[in-house]
Amino acid sequence: MEFVDRLLTCADCGGEFIFTAGEQLFFFDKQFKNDPKRCKPCKSKRAGASLRPGAGPAAAGLSRTETRTHCSECGIETTVPFKPTQGRPVLCRQCFQSKRAPAVAAATAELVAADRAPVSSELIAAAAQAPQA
Ligand SMILES: [Zn+2]
Ligand SMILES: [Zn+2]
């Protein structure tokens, strides 16, 4: 089966866009019955709108695996972006920070204070999953 580029009209903005031979092959492969309805900008706009505001793919991935647990140091409830392994200590951000070298703590302090802490979350995960010395 031969495919040639086709010109389609976007249902959202009414602009014309090219349904390329490659894309048609992809649709054919996936057995999609309908032609694409929207141009790429409109499609990505809709995909972006369905995400929570300010939540990038990384943030969405983190919140999916967020686990509620208690800090094994001070006992307060905290959430960690990974499944705690049994027998491994889980630290809240504060305790985790106090155990890190001051340089690292200083570098991540601002992020932690803002409670976004993507850097320190990764560090927590790395520390928790690293074999104990
Ligand atoms: Zn469009
Ligand atoms: Zn703690």
Automatic annotation (TrEMBL):
InterPro entries: CxxC-x17-CxxC_dom, Zn-bnd_dom_prob. Residues 47-63 have a biased composition (Low complexity). Residues 5-47 form the Probable zinc-binding domain. Residues 64-100 form the CxxC-x17-CxxC domain. Coiled coil: none annotated. Residues 44-63 are annotated as: Disordered. Pfam families: zf_Tbcl, zf_Tbcl_2. This is CxxC-x17-CxxC domain-containing protein.
